[in-house]
Amino acid sequence: MRARVAVQHDPHLRAFYQHLLAAGKLKMQALVANQRKLLHAFHGMFKHDQLLDGEKVYTSSDAVLAPALSNSEVA
Is the pTM of this model over 0.85? Predict the structure, then answer.
């Protein structure tokens, strides 16, 4: 799943995933929300002929400081 890889490596999507988990969502619900967010971001990239900008995907003050997740924590 592309969303799992994105959560592991992209600090903005990782912060969004952690935000959803903190709000009480299940892990699978948070991953599907990340998938949907990526899908919308990719559509916008192609529509406006721009590169992916993580700040536009999810802006959080602690996005860069979010710790890396292990494979067992993602799924």
Answer: no
Q: How far apart are CA 3 and CA 27, in angstroms?
A: 12
Q: Which two tokens stand for residue 45?
A: 């990239």
User: Structure tokens of 74?
Assistant: 């993602």
Cα–Cα distance for residue pair 31/34, rounded to 1 Å: 5
Question: Helix, strand, coil shares of the chain as percentages rounded to 5?
Answer: 65, 0, 35
Q: 64 or 34: whose pLDDT is higher?
A: 34
Residue pointed to by tokens 């969502």:
25
Residue count (the chain): 75
Contact 61, 14 (CB under 8 A): no
